[in-house]
Amino acid sequence: MSVQKELNAKAEKVNYGAVMRNLMKSVRDYKPYTVATPLLVLGEVACEMTIPFVTANLIDTIKVGATVEELLPTSGLLVLLAITSLFFGAAAGITCTEYTFTDSNDVSSVTQKACDDSDVLYIPTDNTAASNTEAIANVVLAAGTPVIAGEAGICKGCGVATLSISYYDLGYATGKMAVKILTGEADISTMPVEYAPQVTKKYNAANCEALNVTVPDDYIAIED
Fold this sequence. Notes:
The chain is of the alpha/beta class and 224 residues long. Helix content is 61%, strand content 8%. α3 packs antiparallel against α4 (68-92), α5 (107-117) packs parallel to α7 and α7 (133-143) crosses α8 (152-158).
């Protein structure tokens, strides 16, 4: 069985109902926001799609020599749509900002700036961050800002939760791909990207307690 056929077979076995039930369990207290956000985005999109038509109508009205009084209703509607769209976008949106370390010397200052501007931080797998988790922890814990980490090592040092992968499993999967290439079974130019076969939900019990963060029951505490 080819890799693509194997992926398709796995996809056919996915119980999407169970996936949604598990997802709703994870959002827990955030269910109202989970429902409201797509509705607000839908409202923003509707306003954004309507604005060009109203603008075109306003231009056509101007071309035929309409008076200022005749233009006011359409102009007012255009302003109202813009304000409504802005409201929907602000209510629904989550702004993501990237903060970059130059080196270990500015880890604390960059982390402090990120904490000042953000409600929660995400730190991907990064060598500089992994080497300076203590410095990061000193800042985020003092600021009360939770960190979602890209891997267990960073989470253990300064995070609250992560989806941890097994580097052994990842290396094993990479080795299987290499064998297929070397034996001519697969073409490297068309071979699909593969991912870690499974992830483990883990959390940092000490940091969660310090920040008063409650994690779902299916998360495993990271061992000291």
